[in-house]
Design goal:
Length: 460
């Protein structure tokens, strides 16, 4: 009897562990069924929480600890036969599983709504208004006095002075019609007169700091121009795509709905028939609980922005980054200002004047594979993809070995973007998501699925 009394605390702990194991197991089953077999119910994926992201490991550890504790209690005689009778165990098991299952359903059904953690629904997406163009007033013709010609057949009176015939006014040269779009007449040499002109020049030059820059791909049409450069300095390798678009619709995105879902970068890019594409911010996982998400002029989610910097590209082509620690981010004001895209990952890489930053709202600022977008002016942007110390794979999946490039820190990226003369720059998802796809080439890592891409397209 003394043994049973002295082991009372352990028996209570064993009971708690057993119940916890049953609850976690039931949650895992419910999550799995809802996420994989009925996503239309819009239940949150278990990747939403840092705890539930590793639910299977938690379950395994709980089950192991429970088993070891019960084995210990049994070995010291802390249980009598009644504890291990078939009827009692069956009753405990049934009650625990039923209780755990009901609790899991309640949690999944209600708490995610209360905590605003339910995943995004397709029917929740709404189009953002576009600015009403100001009507252009028709020019009013100014009447001019028409000179009366002197008759040429009447004889001149004696002593009369002849009236000179006015010289005809020279017809002015026609003024060139302004090119419509974000860039107007600027960078006209970058574009073609119509059909796309594609080339892979592979022209190489060495910059003053020893960096070898190679122009590896160009695309030019009357709407889009892309110059893609490969940079190599020592072991560091990265690519920068210099982008010119006359219509913001040429800078588009594509994404999947539902947490945990995704596709490979090249699959997105091929379906879009993109000229060039990079991975985006993976908003379906990274920003599901908070953040303003807008894609292609559609509002997907409007929740508080507090932990990550926000990047907004407006319908007039301007791009602005908001510092979540310094700026007051008012979603309603942004939405009322006609945004076209917004990204919630970060951090932003330049200050308001385009100067390098030294402090960033992120805990992963060390050197890594990176993807980012830069901004010069409306219609002129840049994509960057940076190799890091991760595996690099071809589209066929063949392992090319470990990346020797060390990657870049946020400080190094900030200095790079500033040196290129950009006014704003924003970090997107990196690591194994990072990659750039162009003309059936994949640069970067992208050895895992991503939820969304940012691409340049030229539909015709």
């Amino acid at each position: 009897m003394a043994k049973k009394s002295s082991a009372k605390g352990l028996r209570v702990l064993a009971s708690i562990l057993a119940n916890a194991t049953a609850i976690v197991a039931a949650n895992y089953i419910v999550f799995y069924i809802l996420d994989h077999y009925n996503p239309g119910l819009h239940f949150v994926m278990h990747s939403t929480f840092i705890v539930t992201e590793y639910l299977h490991w938690i379950l395994a550890v709980l089950a192991l600890l429970t088993g070891l504790l019960y084995l210990l209690l049994f070995s010291i005689g802390a249980f009598d036969r009644y504890w291990f009778s078939g009827k009692r165990l069956a009753r405990i098991l049934i009650l625990d599983v039923l209780f755990a299952g009901i609790l899991a359903m309640v949690i999944n059904t209600y708490s995610f709504d209360w905590l605003h953690l339910r995943q995004i629904k397709q029917e929740d997406i709404v189009a953002i208004a576009t600015p009403t163009p100001s009507p252009t007033a028709e020019p009013t013709a100014v009447p001019t006095d028409t000179p009366t010609p002197a008759p040429t057949d009447a004889p001149a009176e004696p002593g009369a002075t002849a009236v000179p015939t006015p010289e005809p006014t020279a017809t002015p040269e026609p003024t060139a019609t302004p090119i419509p779009g974000l860039l107007g007449d600027r960078y006209a040499e970058k574009f073609s007169d119509g059909d796309a002109v594609i080339a892979e020049p592979n022209t190489e030059e060495t910059l003053s700091d020893g960096t070898v820059r190679t122009l590896i791909y160009t695309y030019a049409s009357d709407q889009v121009a892309v110059d893609l450069y490969h940079y190599k300095k020592g072991k560091l390798e990265y690519q920068i795509a210099d982008l010119y678009v006359r219509d913001l619709k040429n800078l588009t995105t594509d994404y999947v709905m539902g947490q945990g879902s995704g596709r490979m970068l090249f699959e997105f890019a091929r379906d879009l028939n993109s000229i060039i594409a990079v991975n985006s911010d993976y908003f379906v996982t990274n920003a599901i609980n908070e953040g303003l998400i807008i894609r292609n002029g559609n509002l997907i989610q409007s929740r508080v922005c507090k932990n990550s910097d926000l990047c907004v590209i407006y319908q007039d082509g301007t791009m602005r980054c908001f510092d979540c620690k310094k700026d007051t981010i008012n979603n309603d004001e942004i939405i009322a200002s006609f945004p076209y895209h917004s990204f919630y990952f970060g951090p932003s890489l330049l200050d308001a004047d385009g100067n390098p930053k030294t402090k960033f709202n992120s805990t992963v600022g060390t050197a890594n594979p990176r993807t980012a977008i830069g901004y010069y002016e409306p219609g002129h942007y840049a994509f960057i993809s940076i190799l890091g110390t991760r595996d690099i794979k071809t589209l066929s999946g063949k392992n090319l070995g470990n990346g020797k490039s060390p990657g870049m820190s946020f400080t190094e990226m900030s200095e790079l973007f500033s040196s290129l003369g950009m006014k704003a720059a924003y970090n997107l998802d990196g690591g194994q998501s990072s990659g750039m796809f162009w003309n059936e080439h994949l640069f970067g890592h992208n050895t895992r699925i991503t939820g969304d891409v940012l691409a340049i397209v030229d539909p015709r």
